[in-house]
Design goal:
Elements lengths: L1 H13 L2 E6 L14 H8 L1 H6 L3 H4 L4 H4 L1 H17 L4 H12 L4 E5 L5 H5 L6 E3 L2 E8 L6 E3 L7 E2 L4 E2 L12 E5 L10 H16 L5 E6 L7 H12 L3 E6 L12 E3 L3 H9 L1
Parallel strand pairs: 1-2, 1-9, 2-3, 9-10, 10-11
Antiparallel strand pairs: 4-5, 4-8, 6-7
Helix pairs in contact: 7-11
């Protein structure tokens, strides 16, 4: 592993641009759950274990129609948790790195927690492919997207019921997070589409530069983030993928680098 760490350091030092790709494992060292498997989800939400629902069953927009108090207990608690969480030191080490690279970087993440913004990364350089919990939309999907910064959700964790239900600012109907859920045909992608357009322009502009792709905590269950880094590394001869993951750490191109560590420890090893 030490050889891989030294190789990663060299790739990063020589890189002209940085792409940081992150899955739920990025937030674990901040104390956030990664919902790895049903057991991991139930450990984070023992009340839901008693109800017998998996993460994919709970992360379904249908709940906002048939039981909004339950839906907002789940998402309201997560919203409050993410607001209260402080990004771990790895975020700030990465922020220092991209500043050293003349801020020629982008963040590509499946996380909806807003931790990169909270750590100080540029809003215009973050692509949240599944949306964000910090913006809401109407359940009818006919109205726009709005910031949730002034919204508060109180949750009775014993009964696992929301004590108040956020409402659409236009029609007064039940609101929901602007997150792409399972079986979700009503997600409004307009905000994420704008982010993607900025990302596509950036990736096109750095095509001839040496690119270090630093992937942290991206699992195989929903492999969108992993596949993005692998695809770019395969298509761009000047790109190298550095995969930091304590479990799913395998890489498939000879030039790519595997670091079998947790997010924070892996970041410390390659950046110190």
């Amino acid at each position: 592993m030490q050889t891989n760490i030294e190789q990663a350091k060299k790739i990063i030092q020589e890189a002209d641009a940085i792409l940081i790709t992150a899955g739920s494992g990025m937030g674990v060292d901040s104390g956030l759950p990664d919902f790895r498997g049903t057991a991991g989800f139930w450990k984070a939400y023992p009340v839901i274990k008693n109800l017998g629902y998996s993460f994919s069953e709970m992360a379904n927009p249908a709940w906002f129609h048939k039981d909004p108090e339950l839906a907002w207990a789940f998402y309201g608690h997560r919203l409050n948790l993410y607001r209260e969480t402080t990004p771990h030191d790895g975020f700030y080490m990465l922020l220092d790195l991209v500043k050293e690279k003349n801020e020629d970087y982008f963040i590509y993440t499946s996380n909806v927690d807003g931790q990169f913004q909270k750590a100080g990364f540029d809003e215009e350089k973050i692509l949240e492919i599944h949306g964000t919990i910090h913006h809401f939309q109407c359940t009818c999907s006919k109205h726009g997207i709005w910031s949730a910064k002034d919204e508060k959700v109180e949750v009775d964790m014993q009964k696992f019921k929301a004590l108040n239900i956020p409402k659409c600012i236009e029609c007064g109907g039940t609101a929901r997070p602007n997150i792409m859920m399972f079986g979700d045909w009503d997600w409004l992608a307009k905000r994420s589409d704008k982010q993607e357009a900025l990302y596509n322009r950036w990736i096109k502009n750095i095509a001839n530069k040496k690119l270090a792709i630093i992937e942290i905590g991206a699992g195989v269950a929903i492999p969108s983030v992993r596949m993005k880094g692998e695809r770019i590394s395969k298509q761009h001869p000047n790109a190298t993928l550095i995969r930091i993951n304590p479990r799913d750490f395998e890489v498939y191109l000879e030039k790519d680098i595997s670091i079998p560590l947790g997010g924070l420890e892996g970041i410390k090893q390659i950046l110190n």
